[in-house]
Design a protein that fits this description.
The chain is an alpha+beta fold and about 350 residues long. It is built from 8 helices and 14 strands. The protein is about 45% helix and about 20% strand. Strands 1, 3, 5, 6, 7 and 8 form a 6-stranded antiparallel beta sheet that branches. The protein has a 3-stranded mixed beta sheet with strand order 2-12-9, with no helix packed on it. The protein has a 3-stranded antiparallel beta sheet with strand order 4-10-11, with no helix packed on it.
Length: about 350
């Protein structure tokens, strides 16, 4: 009976010993001695079954008095033995500013609400050796060093400055356009330019189609007819016939035109001068003959190329702006102005920080 009891106690001790061995806690330090202000690393490692719950110690600023914690890493978990065991590791970066030999007591770990402790550690902190017998050897504080010039520090400011210049030019352009009440983008209307001979024939047709043309005032009739001819000569031959006398026009035409027969046109101008200045009253047949002479002169002297070549165009600029476009333009100017002010302010702040 006593033998059975002994065997049972022995088996229970073996089970308890196996359970105790399933949890291992180990603390390691990478350097046993440091100078004041230097750093060392403590590694706390726990090996447990994968289903066990582990709680690491929660330190605030120090592990022990005089040994400060600079940084505590996150807990690293590694599974081993086909995920039946896990290895948990946490690192602490420590330092000290007092020279002494520090004893770091065992760190408590809770595993399934049961406390386990690591091994103790020691840390020796040395002070910097100073030769007090030679005070003249102590160096004073160094002068402030000038930061060397690097393009990386100025590249952003240069780009922003170059960007500000076109934005400023655009802002000035907008302000001038809105001040002068002109649109930002010109609307161009292209109208075909009528050749001189077609325009002259159209004007003569108007004269022919007017009611009671034969009953009109002769002076008014011949003035209108000769003005049509003078405008045609100006457009066709390029000299200002509107400011020339009838004889000067004929002489100029004889110099330019290869055709020397200007008899009918000359008679037209002479009749017109008589009507205007001598109160001559021409007959109806004479009016018709002069009208036909004008048409013949235009048809004989018109440029044949004008009927086949594309005519030049005349550009008409429409300067109109609606109320909506004015409001949008004003908002655009305000946003552009605010953007430029913001960029200039940022550049000034950065320049101050670089040059201070």
């Amino acid at each position: 009976m006593n033998k059975k009891i002994f065997l049972l106690l022995l088996a229970a001790c073996a089970v308890l010993n196996a359970a105790a061995q399933s949890v291992t806690v180990e603390a390691r330090i990478d350097s046993l001695q440091i100078l004041i202000g230097e750093q060392a690393k403590i590694e706390l490692e726990v090996a447990v079954d994968s289903k066990q719950k582990v709680v690491f110690p929660l330190f605030t600023d120090t592990i022990v008095k005089g040994v400060e914690i600079i940084e505590a890493s996150k807990i690293d978990t590694q599974y081993i033995n086909n995920n039946q065991r896990m290895l948990l590791t946490q690192e602490y970066i420590i330092t000290s500013f007092d020279s002494a030999l520090y004893f770091i007591p065992p760190m408590p770990i809770l595993v399934d609400n049961q406390e386990y402790k690591s091994n103790a550690l020691a840390l020796k902190v040395y002070t910097v050796p100073v030769d007090v017998s030679q005070p003249d050897m102590f160096a004073g504080p160094k002068d402030i060093m000038k930061v060397p010039f690097t393009w990386e520090d100025w590249k952003g400011l240069i780009v922003l400055t170059l960007l500000t210049i076109p934005l400023l030019i655009l802002l000035i352009y907008f302000i001038i356009r809105i001040r002068d009440n002109k649109p930002i983008i010109r609307k161009v209307k292209i109208e075909p330019k009528i050749p001189p001979h077609i325009l002259a024939i159209q004007e003569i047709e108007k004269v022919k189609s007017e009611k009671a043309a034969h009953n009109r005032d002769p002076k008014e009739y011949y003035t209108e007819l000769t003005d049509i001819i003078r405008n045609y000569i100006y457009g066709r031959f390029g000299f200002n016939a509107l400011e020339m006398t009838s004889s000067e026009i004929i002489e100029k035409l004889l110099d330019i035109n290869e055709k020397e027969d200007m008899k009918e046109l000359k008679e037209l101008f002479q009749t017109a001068d008589l009507v205007k200045f001598a109160k001559h009253d021409p007959l109806i047949n004479e009016k018709d003959a002069n009208l036909i002479s004008a048409i013949d002169f235009i048809n004989e002297t018109k440029s044949g190329e004008e009927e086949f070549k594309p005519q030049p165009t005349e550009i008409t600029i429409i300067e109109k702006r609606s109320l909506r476009s004015k409001i949008l333009l004003g908002c655009g100017i305000a946003i552009l102005f605010a953007t430029i002010i913001g960029i200039i302010t940022y550049i000034c702040i950065q320049l101050y920080n670089l040059l201070a």
